[in-house]
């Protein structure tokens, strides 16, 4: 049974610079959690700490604990590559491998660990993942065409198919719709609503309407001033954050007074 994500006393650094300070939060399984807040408050940094992508940057490190389904992902002996197998990520700009075929793009993560995939298994994974990403009907007759032959919105759904192909528990999405038109954005939002039955989804978004449409819980990050670390100021049900937040800063942000 999925337990979600537990973050305790987490601070996140880029060398000397503390970018995020003392986050404590429980993220529910099988739901969408949105992270909002002004630019530079550490939303993306926090998101990347949930699958150990943060430490890829030289000098970057994390203090405190992150447990995913009870497992401390920063414990000694835990392989970050394994963690990323359980916690997939979708980025702001769709980033399929442009010359690789649509089918091979879906399989790219799986092939990293399992070079000898049988054709019948590969076909089954490609279809299941593309169906899961609501892209199958649009591409089933051209799986051999390059990833770059798709529209931006289709490419983003291809990236989601690639992320779910490895059957992760958690999907992190960093502004996944910011490079997309409104129709493609709605397609991805609908998809998130479907995927939350199976995955724990955490999304960073600047789009308040999007947070309100897709998420059940919302976290508001803020900074006290230039150079200060970002903090998780308020975390509550999305409806509460948008209609009756406890903190004045949250209310000012969601009502568009700053940010
Ligand atoms: N690669 C990096 N090296 C050093 N500092 C970084 C790096 N990436 C981000 N930072 C710093 O960490 C802080 C938080 O940045 P982050 O990108 O997480 O904020 P954000 O809330 O996601 O912003 P935005 O909404 O603009 O994407 C900022 O002060 C930023 O300058």
UniProtKB/TrEMBL annotation:
GO terms for biological process: phosphate ion transmembrane transport. One of its GO terms (cellular component) is membrane. SUPFAM superfamilies: P-loop containing nucleoside triphosphate hydrolases. GO terms for molecular function: ATP binding; ATP hydrolysis activity; phosphate transmembrane transporter activity. Keywords: ATP-binding, Nucleotide-binding, Translocase, Transport. SMART domains: AAA. It comes from the Bacteria. Signal peptide: none annotated. InterPro entries: AAA+_ATPase, ABC_transporter-like_ATP-bd, ABC_transporter-like_CS, P-loop_NTPase, PstB-like. Residues 5-248 form the ABC transporter domain. This is Phosphate ABC transporter ATP-binding protein. It comes from Ancrocorticia populi. The lineage of its organism: Bacteria, Bacillati, Actinomycetota, Actinomycetes, Actinomycetales.
